[in-house]
Design a protein that fits this description.
By secondary structure, the protein is α+β, with helices and mostly antiparallel strands. Helices cover 13% and strands 28% of the residues.
Length: 210
């Protein structure tokens, strides 16, 4: 009986100890952002579970952000892209691949660096959106769809042509129209059909002189 009671107390004690640990484990995933703009994800379970894809959002606080981009660090992701909505100031980060993003026996992943400059060249303030970190489990990479995503911001594209340009040749390069008739200056002169009057033979008299 004493052993049975002791076993019950031990079981209750272990449950009381494990509950706070599990609660803590559920809240250890976080996105860290330092003063240099470097983004790091810290997780105690991502490496063990082989997380291959993830997404999260950053909030860019600036009165007039002219340039917003994200420079990704080297990783196992096959797809790494960012989407920025200037109106809402949301910068969404996506990483997807078939291999684990977190190295074995590690609890952190350096994603990259956010770069946001306002019109005066001053660094804008950025923060991590609450509850925006999401993991995708699986062995196959899948590209994030465009539905419900903010408009993509292309930086440094320069003068690349827009899709849907006309396929016809520009007017300045069209070949000139070839004339179908020979120019008048090169026409051959009309040959006379009669012998010139100056070359006619003289008329012979028909009577002898008296």
């Amino acid at each position: 009986m004493k052993r049975y009671i002791s076993g019950m107390f031990l079981t209750v004690f272990m449950l009381l100890v494990l509950l706070p640990v599990r609660a803590e484990a559920a809240s250890i995933d976080e996105v860290l952002l330092d003063s240099q703009g470097t983004v790091t994800i810290r997780s105690q379970h991502a490496a063990k579970e082989g997380v291959s894809s993830l997404q999260f959002s950053l909030s860019v606080e600036s009165a007039n952000a002219e340039q917003v981009k994200f420079d990704f660090d080297a990783s196992n992701a096959k797809i790494s892209e960012f989407r920025y909505d200037k109106e809402s100031g949301k910068l969404n980060i996506y990483m997807a691949g078939a291999d684990a993003l977190f190295s074995e026996n590690t609890n952190s992943l350096t994603v990259g660096k956010i770069v946001a400059l306002d019109s005066n060249g001053e660094t804008a303030v950025a923060s991590v959106s609450v509850d925006s970190l999401k993991y995708v489990y699986g062995t196959e990479a899948s590209e994030m769809g465009d539905e419900g995503l903010p408009k993509a911001v292309q930086i440094g594209t320069g003068g690349n042509p827009e899709p849907g340009q006309p396929t016809q040749q520009p007017q300045g390069t069209q070949e000139p129209v070839q004339p179908t008739q020979q120019p008048s200056g090169t026409q051959e002169p009309v040959q006379p059909t009669q012998q010139p009057s100056g070359t006619q033979e003289p008329v012979q008299p028909t009577q002898q002189p008296s």
